[in-house]
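Quick check before the chapter quiz. The format below is the same one you will see on the exam, so make sure you can read both the input and the output lines.
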Amino acid sequence: MDGNIPCFIYSSTGAIYMWFKNLLIYRFTKPFSLTAEEVNERLAEKSFIPCNSQDVSSYGWTLPLGSQGSEYVHVSNGCIMLCAQKQEKILPASVVNEVLADKLEEIKLAEDRIPGRKERTELKDEITFSLIPRAFTRSNRLFAYIAPEQGLLIVNAASHNKAEELLNFLRESLGSLPVIPLKAKNVAQHQMTEWLVQGAAPAGFELGGECELRDKADESSVIRCKNQNLCTAEISSHIQAGMFVNKIALRWSGDIEFVIDDQLAIKRLNFGDLIQDKVGDVHTESAADQFDVDFAIMSAEFAAFIPAVLEAFGGEDLSEQGEVISSAA
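Here is the expected output.
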């Protein structure tokens, strides 16, 4: 399954399991004042429409619950879930180049000449345009949710580009979206490196078995460690030689395992038995009910997890954020 979409699986019984696997977190610099109903109305105006014959791609809002729902938002614990869908035409370059080669050969035989660069470019564009209607399509969905009380927007994306695409479209849909990436007071690379120097994670966390080291003088020099004790003399020697930690695996006492990098991007989330037991303790009658339970529990866990992560990095840096309103302020 694509790492940029949540675990969103339909079982043979119709149940839906929805858990984010990645977190890119953004702070609202002004209070989010729209109601869920207002958000739903604005997203509906830019709902997803499949590509027509000549479209290369299409982007729009779709129902978070899919066929199980009728709204463009799903609300639980005061949080507003939304879902963007992107459809792209798949036209391999090899196919275009093969047709182009045939066309160039035809011109050479018929006119005894070799087309120049400009003409070849124009021919390639014409061929691409002619093939688009016959191309296959590929669709992906990207989930995010707004947590007004925490003043956060959380995107389940491993790629910053995909998250920015959603944010830009949401800004266009809502009229404004005053958010900036979440920022900690301490430099993440320095903080993570210090944990390994000290041989211990911050309070409430445990070191995992994975990290990525980069050379301060040459960041293209990378050492990746997996399934290892990170507090060994070997890793310590790399740090003493001038390398820093760029990425590290941690386990939070609230029962979440994850990998975090120097930009505070959280990836490969894994929810432990304590959290899964909370889900199992709730009986649901439908896929929509199960989605609601999953979202409620997940968002409640993140409401405690995200502040804990920020505290591990010295707290949140609000110096560049202007007026920030959240329940924690």
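If your answer matched, good. The chain has three domains: 18-85+139-181, 93-133, 188-312.
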